[in-house]
Design goal:
Layout: E1 3-8, H1 15-27, E2 30-36, H2 47-57, E3 64-69, H3 73-80, E4 84-88, H4 92-108, E5 113-117, H5 128-136, H6 147-157
Parallel strand pairs: 1-2, 2-3, 4-5
Helix pairs in contact: 2-6
Length: 158
C-alpha cells in the first residue's frame, strides 16, 4: 500500500491545496493530510480549527485521513510508516524553499522521498497567506476556499 503524507499549516486550506490532494489521490492508496501546529508561524486559526476546516473540505476523498502534528516531519513519517511526502509548488520561490526542506529531511532520513506537485494553472496564485491577507481586510475569499471552509472561517472569526 502506497501511503503519502501531505504536511502543511493549512491556515486555511484553499482550493489550491485541494487541487494537490485530488491529484495525489490518483497516485497513492492513502493520503494523510498532516496539519502542523506551527505556532512559530503565528497562524490565524488554531490547530483544532484548521483540522476541522481540512476535514470539512475533504469529505469527498475516501482515501484521505486528517491528523494534527507537532514534531519533525521525519518523526511523523516514522510514526505513520510512510516514506513519501507530497508538497505543492506554485512558483520558483516555492521551489527554492521546498528543495531546501526536501534536502534537510533527506539528510535526517535518506529513504524519505518528496514528491512535488504543481496545482493547475487556475489555482497557481492561491495560497493561505493570500486568503489571510484578504480576510484581514474583510475581502471576499469565496473563490479561494470551498463553501464548507468559508462557513467555518466565518464561524471562527465572529
Amino acid at each position: 500500500m502506497r501511503k503519502a503524507i501531505y504536511p502543511g499549516t493549512f491556515d486555511p486550506i484553499t482550493v489550491g491545496h485541494l487541487d494537490i490532494i485530488r491529484r495525489a489521490c490518483t497516485m497513492f492508496d492513502e493520503i494523510i493530510v498532516a496539519v502542523a501546529d506551527s505556532q512559530a508561524k503565528k497562524p490565524m486559526f488554531d490547530l483544532g480549527q484548521r483540522i476541522d476546516m481540512v476535514k470539512a473540505a475533504t469529505t469527498s476523498f475516501p482515501k484521505l485521513k486528517v491528523i494534527g502534528f507537532d514534531s519533525l516531519l521525519v518523526t511523523l513519517s516514522d510514526e505513520l510508516e510512510s516514506n513519501i511526502v507530497i508538497r505543492g509548488l506554485r512558483a520558483v520561490s516555492d521551489f527554492e524553499y521546498e528543495l531546501q526542506m526536501g534536502y534537510a529531511n533527506a539528510s535526517l532520513k535518506p529513504d524519505l522521498e518528496t514528491v512535488y506537485l504543481m496545482p493547475s494553472l487556475k489555482h497557481a496564485f492561491v495560497s493561505s497567506s493570500v486568503v489571510r491577507t484578504i480576510l484581514n481586510f474583510d475581502g471576499k475569499v469565496e473563490h479561494l476556499v470551498v463553501p464548507e471552509v468559508l462557513t467555518l472561517i466565518k464561524k471562527y472569526r465572529s
